[in-house]
Amino acid sequence: MRSLLRVCGRWFLPAAMTAAAMAAPALAEGDQPANGVFADDDTLPGSYRLHTETDIGGGLWGLGPNRGPAKRASFKADVHDDVAAFDVRHPCTMCHTDEAKDLHVARIGTGCRQCHVSLPIVGMHHDDSPMNPMRRHASVCAACHEGATPSFAGYVVHEPSAISAEAREQFPLLFYAVWFMIFLAGGVLALFIPFTVLWLAREYGGKLRTRGHGRADATVRLKRFTPAMRLWHLALIAAFMLLTVTGLAWMYIETPWGRMLASWFGGPRLTVEVHRITGIVMLAGFAAHIVYALTKVDWRNLPRSLVSPDMLVMTPRDIGNVFRHLGWIFGLCKAPGFDRWTWWGKFDYWAVWWGITVLGVTGLLIYNPVLTSDYMPGWLLNVMTWIHRIEAFLAFTHVFTIHFLVEHFRPGRLPFSAAMFDGTVPLDIARSEHPAWIERLEREGRLAGLMTSEPPVILRILYFGVGYAIMILAVALMAFAFANIMAVSLF
Q1: Alpha-carbon distance 376 to 154, whole Å?
Q2: 173-487 is classed in which CATH architecture?
Q3: SS3 (DSSP) at 425
Q4: pLDDT value at residue 42
Q5: Spatial distance between the Cα atoms of 243 and 232, rounded to a whole number of angstroms
Q6: Where are the domains of the chain?
Q7: What is the rounded CA–CA span in Å between residue 137 and residue 157?
Q8: Is residue 390 within 8 Å of 165, Cβ to Cβ?
Q9: Burial class (CB in 10 A: 0-12, 13-18, 19+), 318
């Protein structure tokens, strides 16, 4: 227990300087131990790999960063001694253009000389270089990241373009992880966006008049969502929108649009802190929801109780309804009749579990990178950051397009569905879309007890105003994010 508290304390509080992070001891001239680092007058190896000096690279079946043969200049006492055009007054990025795209330079504004501190610039593999992998963590990283270890120094600052052939050669795990996430996100959106468009076209085309086609009688309503469900959903909306705004502000901090978003929270640093705190709150809420969900399980009747109509567990019938729904869209069969939950409602519910798990795990790992690198190679932080980015893009794109269209812009729901605000739906809509549920309620004698009337006008106006404000902000965020994607230092 004491060890657990110590780890938690280090995670959320500034890390203390560890023995491994202490500066390398001063050694007399010519007294350096053999460490695999070669001086100017030594014979260069035929293939010198950066991460062989310390136990921070390679690993994971050779998928870690691999810089390949070292440049001869990296062993010099002055890497610019034979560069005729070199002028110390010129910015480094005048020649090193690719290095200007990393997060330290582009988003934090770190200058090259804050890491490459010597003058003249000593090659990173030279014995006296502060950037030498043997002492980089103490001589350079610890200046900003207190407690930095050799593993932490394995983080790849000048990261290759994650989707490039260069990354496949130099950093295979990053390359394959990013492409996996791109195919995952792209596949989900490529499948569901056309499906949703065809679905709306089918309903608006009026080929099935009984599917919510005209104006439903909104005065006779049915209680569908419990107060607890509505509370979870409203809390999720608030946390998700705050995370989206702060996350995009930091991701696009190089652009005027990103800086404008960050100004809402007092600048970049406070924006990042708000993002982190909101993420922790969401994870805490997710943990509480899991406990809540477990209390709803009838443990005495397992496993049958898990597949009851009131549970959100996907069943073979839901899979069949997906294909029946697709057949109905193309006019091949009748529309499926659902019980309390539709297949897409269950899909959205479990998609939240997936998203919070992926974003939560990766977010925690990059929350305190110094502590994280005590338990895994620092270069895995590069991979976790990319997974976090792409999963976040998938989450807000799915919610801001597919979820909004399905829940608010189908016939019978326009101009806005306030079901998650007031917990009710028109009885006509319920009979049309959830006939099995209505039949079950009538058979069990519970339908009359769930009937209710419309909420007061003032509440309906409030729901409409809040709902549309959220949707307008969401669509604006998504539009600006995709319009400015090439303006940020990602690829």
Answers
A1: 10
A2: Up-down Bundle (1.20)
A3: strand
A4: 32
A5: 16
A6: 48-154, 173-487
A7: 13
A8: no
A9: buried
Taking a C-beta distance cutoff of 8 angstroms, is the pair 40, 127 a contact? Answer: no
Cβ neighbours for 299, distance < 8 A, ≥ 6 positions apart = 305
Query: Could you tell me which residues are beta bridge partners of residue 221?
Result: 426, 452
Q: What percent of the chain has pLDDT over 70?
A: 82
Q: For residue 461, which of 407, 427, 421 has the smallest C-alpha distance?
A: 421
One-letter amino acid at 454 equals E
Can you state the angle between helices 2-12 and 343-367, rounded to 10 degrees? 90
Q: Is the CB of residue 181 less than 8 Å from the CB of residue 387?
A: yes
Tokens coding 459: 């509440």
CA distance 161 to 158: 9
pLDDT tens-digit profile of 248-267? Answer: 999 888 888 999 999 999 98
Q: Cα–Cα distance between 477 and 469 in angstroms, integer?
A: 12
Q: Which residue has the higher pLDDT, 157 or 412?
A: 157
Residue 197 vs residue 64, higher pLDDT: 197
Mean pLDDT of 320-335: 91
The residue with tokens 């960050």 is: 262
Strand ordering across the sheet containing 424-426 = 424-426, 220-223, 451-453
Which residue from 34, 28, 26, 131 is spatially nearest to 76, judged by alpha carbons? 131
Query: If you write DSSP's letter for every residue of 128-158 in order, what string do you get?
Result: T-TT-TTTHHHHTGGGTSTT--TTGGGS-SS
Which burial class, exposed, middle or buried, applies to 126 when counting CB atoms under 10 A from its CB (0-12, 13-18, 19+)? buried
Q: Which residues contact 313 (CB under 8 A, 6 or more apart)?
A: 306, 307, 346
Is residue 441 within 8 Å of residue 392, measured between CB atoms? no
Residue 122 CA to residue 77 CA, distance in Å, equals: 5
Residue 323's CB: how many other CB atoms inside 10 A?
13
Q: What is the pLDDT of residue 9?
A: 52
Position 153, amino acid: A
Average pLDDT, the chain: 81
Instruction: Specify the 3-state DSSP secondary structure of 465.
Output: helix
Contact 283, 365 (CB under 8 A): no
Cα–Cα dist 62/480, whole Å: 39
**What are 392's two structure tokens?**
């976040």
Nearest residue to 64 (alpha-carbon basis) of 169, 178, 183, 179: 169
Q: Per-residue pLDDT averaged across 47-70, rounded?
A: 51
Give 166-220 as a DSSP string: HHHHH-HHHHHHHHHHHHHHHHHHHHHHHHHHHHHHHHHHTSSTTTT-S---TTE
Closest CA to 348 of 487, 164, 192, 217: 192
Number of C-beta neighbours around residue 23 at 10 A:
11
Are residues 281 and 239 in contact, defined by beta-carbon separation less than 8 angstroms?
A: yes
